[in-house]
């Protein structure tokens, strides 16, 4: 009976399969999957060859190709197979010839021709609708779950991610979408799932934990799973667009959508990256190799590394050795952005001197990295001053309606269309002069008011009626931009810098997901392609701040998150964690962003960074300079970095240990126990225990009582204490006593003033300066210990006056030891 039931189910399934198959006009199979196409030009099945599971979502249409006329999408209505081509007919009677080729693990599709194309602004590949929703790679163009992956890779820079009606940048956004356990404010609960527009981590210092950040649109979430989407535009006509709050003229280019090509693939999730590697090699996409390894598969793609901005480059190498770092970022090496001259105060001899330093570093096993703000142009660069280039990027142009002298402050123009955009510097160019203006009038005659003539060292000049005036574009650092042709020159020059200096990392900051010229991802990809093509050695690390699909093939990692906005545990912490989710779904190595090594750090501070690095298997950048020499904990900090990174790089932590470390509120201590052995402890810290002067009754002792709940076994007392500034200069405290109930008191017979610090390691109390350098120590009784559970603590001292400093104490304990042994 059971056999009969199974047989009938199989028979029904077979009949359904046969009836569906009859509606297919073509099937293309790789070793992993079969793609079935119907007679109307739609994909109807993406089936795993092993299981037969169809990952295509029936709820969403999946046209092989559609046309976009600037307002609507025109769908295919018929598909014919002619040898290695598909002939697609569309609702407007356009006819496309699409070549098809099954290759190793993927299918290559290319638009060969399109007839009746008048009015067609762009062609769209897909969107291809899938049932997959677990990992939606908005940058890499791959969606996957734990079993299977479906993806698209663009095979040239003229094919970019997204949909043409959304514009040409890697559009994404921030959404109110809490993870399990995250709370949303009551006034936002009705907005869950909606986009929010008031997130600026560089102004706020972080983002709410309940916000999800999407960084592109190569793949997007849908109710049925996901869509994968790419397109190519016809750039051959100049046009004017609305772009980031301004009217923008987009220059015509010799670039059409004919020849647009994609690789379509489906494979087991574990092999998705390998398939992309085959696509890169097979289709001539960038495929950077380092020491014989593809960058996407090398052992340590995401190192911890250092930013050095100090006085001595020799110190940079010494600090790197102390941390066991193999990569040192030395920041900006350019006299200006634009010409990228290398003759600076740090390197007066230019490229030759930099090359000598990079060679010296390589001899010690260290690569040197540098930074630039991509396409940003300094206002003191020769492209701007004293004679501005005609290839500076503009939003648009008008003409003068009246002649002006070299000193006129108001300038009449024919149209204000492009001049209502002011930018940071309010700059316009007339011939070889740059002028700034306060505002433009809104009624005729249109005037630029209160002009500053000869801005940026250009020469004030008389100009005639009818002379052209260009509105210049600003970057956010109050500089300018190149147009798309000058950006090619910038890219070639930066490749030349890499070739002649031997730097091992180029940090491209300031991309913002597209090109400022209005050419979007095509322009941004063109810049990077030019740079990469001109490199002598392709195995250079590149990183940056804004991702997009083409760059995925070139960069080694992306590294965001800055330390400038708050203390260590608060500065962009949610933002850094959200980035880890982005990296995971986009097949990218984890990076935590930038941190700084402060001379005020305690070992717990640097171990907080290291635990997060180990938790997410994520690298980071650590800013270091000579100020660290003031730290009393310098050797402890460097040792913690070395040992934690050994454990991370060799993948010695268990999944359970890493999961605990993902919570930024959890603290840990790693103790070296041998050449290849460590002890890992959980750490409990309880701060905000403040003892300060207050009025008391006659005979009442001036003391403060606190409790410390030690969750671990009995152990010697540890704590930190900081003497906080009072309201009277020179005031002080004496006879500080910390008494744990039932134990011998800890007494500090030392005059303490604001800025002094103390710590107890269980054996001694050390009286330190503001950077934890000890100047005196006092032994602690062996009987002074934290008991397991609640401990009552009393703090008291003598204050020199009612305005004397206060004492802030942080209690510490550790336990739950786990042994770690290297393999």
Automatic annotation (TrEMBL):
Domain of life: Bacteria
Cross-referenced PROSITE patterns: PROKAR_LIPOPROTEIN
Keyword Signal: yes
Signal peptide as annotated in the record: 1-25
Keywords: Signal
Protein name: Uncharacterized protein
Organism: Parabacteroides segnis
């Amino acid at each position: 009976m059971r056999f009969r039931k199974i047989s009938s189910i199989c028979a029904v399934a077979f009949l359904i399969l046969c009836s569906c198959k009859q509606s297919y006009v073509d099937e293309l199979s790789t070793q992993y999957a079969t793609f079935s196409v119907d007679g109307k030009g739609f994909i109807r099945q993406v089936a795993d060859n092993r299981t037969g599971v169809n990952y295509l979502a029936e709820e969403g249409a999946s046209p092989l190709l559609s046309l976009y006329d600037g307002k609507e999408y025109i769908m295919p209505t018929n598909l014919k197979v002619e040898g290695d081509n598909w002939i697609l007919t569309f609702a407007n009677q356009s006819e496309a010839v699409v070549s098809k080729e099954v290759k190793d693990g993927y299918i290559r599709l290319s638009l060969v021709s399109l007839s009746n194309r008048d009015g067609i602004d762009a062609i769209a590949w897909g969107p291809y609708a899938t049932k997959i929703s677990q990992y939606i790679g908005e940058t890499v163009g791959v969606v996957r779950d734990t079993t299977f992956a479906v993806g698209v890779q663009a095979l040239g820079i003229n094919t970019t991610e997204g949909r043409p009606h959304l514009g040409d940048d890697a559009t994404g956004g921030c959404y109110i979408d809490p993870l399990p356990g995250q709370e949303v404010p009551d006034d936002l609960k009705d907005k869950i799932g909606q986009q929010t527009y008031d997130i600026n981590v560089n102004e706020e210092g972080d983002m709410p934990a309940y916000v999800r950040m999407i960084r592109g649109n190569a793949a997007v979430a849908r109710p049925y799973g996901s869509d994968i989407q790419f397109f190519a535009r016809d750039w051959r006509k100049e046009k004017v667009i609305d772009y980031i709050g301004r009217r923008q003229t987009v220059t015509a280019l010799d670039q059409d959508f004919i020849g647009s090509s994609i690789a379509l693939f489906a494979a087991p999730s574990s092999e998705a990256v390998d398939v992309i590697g085959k696509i890169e090699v097979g289709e001539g996409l960038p495929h950077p190799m380092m020491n014989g390894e593809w960058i996407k598969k090398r052992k340590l793609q995401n190192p911890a590394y250092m930013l050095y901005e100090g006085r001595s480059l020799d110190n940079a190498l010494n600090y790197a050795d102390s941390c066991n770092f193999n990569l040192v970022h030395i920041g900006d090496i350019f006299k200006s952005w634009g010409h990228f001259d290398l003759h600076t105060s740090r390197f007066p001899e230019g490229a030759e001197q930099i090359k000598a330093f990079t060679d010296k570093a390589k001899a010690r096993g260290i690569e040197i990295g540098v930074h630039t703000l991509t396409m940003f142009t300094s206002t003191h660069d020769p492209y701007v001053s004293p004679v501005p280039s005609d290839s500076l990027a503009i939003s648009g142009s008008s003409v003068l309606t009246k002649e002006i002298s070299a000193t006129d402050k108001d300038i009449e123009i024919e149209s204000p269309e492009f001049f209502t955009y002011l930018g940071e510097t309010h700059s316009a160019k007339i011939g070889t002069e740059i002028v700034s203006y306060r505002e433009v009038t809104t009624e005729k005659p249109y005037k630029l008011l209160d002009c500053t003539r000869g801005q940026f060292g250009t020469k004030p000049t008389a100009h005639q009626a009818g002379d052209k005036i260009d509105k210049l574009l600003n970057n956010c650092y109050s500089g300018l931009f190149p147009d798309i042709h000058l950006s090619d020159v910038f890219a070639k020059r930066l490749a030349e810098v890499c070739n002649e200096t031997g730097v091992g990392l180029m940090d491209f900051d300031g991309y913002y997901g597209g090109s400022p010229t209005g050419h979007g991802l095509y322009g941004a990809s063109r810049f990077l392609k030019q740079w990469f093509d001109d490199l002598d050695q392709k195995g250079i690390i590149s990183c940056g701040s804004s991702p997009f699909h083409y760059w995925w093939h070139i960069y080694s990692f992306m590294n965001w998150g800055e330390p400038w906005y708050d203390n260590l545990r608060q500065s962009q912490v949610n933002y850094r964690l959200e980035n880890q989710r982005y990296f995971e779904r986009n097949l990218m190595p984890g990076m935590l962003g930038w941190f700084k090594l402060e001379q005020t750090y305690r070992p717990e501070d640097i171990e907080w960074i290291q635990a997060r690095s180990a938790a997410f298997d994520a690298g980071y950048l650590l800013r270091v300079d000579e100020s660290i020499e003031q730290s009393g904990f310098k050797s402890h900090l460097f040792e913690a970095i070395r040992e934690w990174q050994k454990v991370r790089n060799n993948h010695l932590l268990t999944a359970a240990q890493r999961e605990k470390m993902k919570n930024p509120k959890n603290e840990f201590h790693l103790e070296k126990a041998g050449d290849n052995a460590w002890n890992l402890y959980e750490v409990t810290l309880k701060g905000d225990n403040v003892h300060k002067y207050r009025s008391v009754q006659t005979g009442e002792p001036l003391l403060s009582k606190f409790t410390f709940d030690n969750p671990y076994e009995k152990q010697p007392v540890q704590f930190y204490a900081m003497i906080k500034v009072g309201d009277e200069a020179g005031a002080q405290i004496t006879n500080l006593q910390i008494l744990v109930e039932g134990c011998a008191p800890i007494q500090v017979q030392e005059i303490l003033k604001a800025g002094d610090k103390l710590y107890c390691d269980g054996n001694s109390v050390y009286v330190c300066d503001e950077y934890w350098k000890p100047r005196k120590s006092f032994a602690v009784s062996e009987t002074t210990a934290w008991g397991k559970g609640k401990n009552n603590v009393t703090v008291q001292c003598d204050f020199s006056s009612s305005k004397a400093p206060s004492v802030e104490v942080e209690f510490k304990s550790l336990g739950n030891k786990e042994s770690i042994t290297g393999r």
